[in-house]
Amino acid sequence: MTALLLGPHLRHVSERTATIWVETERPCEVRVVNREHGVDAGAPTFTAHGHHYALVEIDGLAPGARVPYEVLVDGETVWPEEGDGYPPPRLRTLDPDGGLRISFGSCRRSPGTVEEFGHDALTALAQRLRGADDADWPDLLLMVGDQVYADELSDEMREFIRGRRAPGDPPDDEAADFEDYTHLYKLAWHDDPAVRWLLSTVPTFTIFDDHDIRDDWNTSLAWREEMWSQPWWKARITGGIGSYWIYQHLGNMSPGDRASDPVFKALRTASDESGDAGAVLDEFAEKADKEPAGTRWSYAHDWGGTRLIVVDSRCSRLLTADRRGMLDDEEFQWLDDQCQGGMDHLLIASSLPYLLPKAIHHAESWNEAMAGGAWGKAAGRLGEKIRQAADLEHWAAFEKSFRAVAADVVSVARGERGPAPASISFLSGDIHYSYLARVIEPGVQSKVTQIVCSPLRNPLIGKFRMANRIACSRAAGAPFRALAKLSKVPAPPIRWRMTDGPWFDNAIATVHLSGRECDVRWDTPRDGGGLTEMGRAKITG
Questions:
Q1: How far apart are CA 129 and CA 87, in angstroms?
Q2: What per-residue confidence (pLDDT) applies to 1?
Q3: Signal sequence: where (predicted)?
């Protein structure tokens, strides 16, 4: 019998479709079945670098369906595993009339001890859902970055690496290639039975952040030039982007998007013709890094009265000697096109918070000007060192991009692009604490907020927690705004203030949308399992 190496994962769903992703031990046919409900769909695997994957697309489901399913490999049932103690996994489609609950978070270290990283919010969510009524389940799970840590390795990952390359071979104590990445995903998503069950039964969407590739990924042109000067970087970046495309991005796409995707077609063709599409995947991944305008990782889906826009704020950056942008021109035009009215709620997910605590925002805008030469060449070199050392690379560090997005959002909130939504919310992670910030902008009809939930499992400790707590205070922003002003950085085009938080514990947030109402709750894992409420806020209604 062919074993499942990873999965099944319930990925993209709509009102009538669902997608199951798996990795298998060898080439085979994978089927998803529940004959009582008329479900029987299959797909052959495709192969890349000796690993075998399948995406099974199920159509014809009812809106709001909750259909138990089995996974068969070459006719043998391989999931669910007998006696695993969890309820049967279910295909869960969306109900456009039933509201929408989206749970989200970022920054999850796995494996590791409770003493190192605390309790896992995903494990705790699984424990809560085992006995929860269906009305209490999230409709979607959105993971907004750092699903794996390719540059901060666990002991288990170090042991795996020692088995395949000599001590001292670069990169030291980091993932090196596609094979290393496949093991990172296995450790993150397979070895905890609760998380494996959760991913099999809650539809999941993702976007990467820096640690999915490497800390400070694409922070600046200088960073990119330094990385590409390393002889080991090509295998690292192609392995990281290629594995992300298979393990994460493929499941974000709708069946229609996948059917028209040239990369998916090329991989399946190469796999059928030569037995392995690894070379095709590597060529695509290298081009995606060197020519980011040619690949779109961002995506948008409409569900009932809600539009979810998930923005790639890492790979699509514009970094040249003359221009800097969080998004390149093509990517920004795509985002601009997606930011429209006529919806009840507009959600914009970006791994990096758009609205930071004021002190951090002003520090990053000042640093961008300094690194760009506002205080001379010598200070510019120092500014670049500070940027990389202090991770000053959020939206505030791309001031023109920040202003362009503000213009779009305010235009939608004023009803200039169709009827204004009740709420416009940024959903983000990255910074290892959680909070709510509200925009204070005259003349807008929508409630505009920044909702941050981070980490799922990787809390700040000691001096880092204290420094960020101080940065969240209102008084801390003034000195950094003065520095930014001295560097001729204009005042931000919108005003905002933090109203809830910060909370520094591991957490998962759930945004609940019903009609024109929107609220959010943050939960933290508790000793002994499950979740306990950490904070709650009403956005509209």
A1: 10
A2: 54
A3: none
Candidates 314, 354, 316; CA nearest to 219 is 314
Share of the chain above pLDDT 70, in %: 100
Candidates 426, 372, 368; CA nearest to 394 is 368
Q: In 3D, which of 453, 460, 409 has the Cα closest to residue 428?
A: 453
Domain boundaries, the chain: 100-145+297-541
Q: Round to whole Å and give the CA distance between 318 and 315.
A: 9
Task: Give the range among 306-315, 343-352, 461-470, 504-513 with minimum mean pLDDT.
Answer: 461-470
DSSP-assigned letter for residue 247: I
Determine contact, residues 423/409, Cβ cutoff 8 Å.
no
Are 455 and 504 contacting, i.e. CB atoms less than 8 angstroms apart? no
Q: Provide CB contacts within 8 A for 51, sequence distance 6+.
A: 5, 23, 182
Backbone angles phi, psi at 15, to 5 degrees: -70, -30
CA distances from 484 to 288, 326, 368, 400 (A): 34, 19, 9, 14
CATH class of the region 100-145+297-541? alpha beta
Task: Find, among 452, 475, 472, 494, the residue nearest to 357 by Cα.
Answer: 472
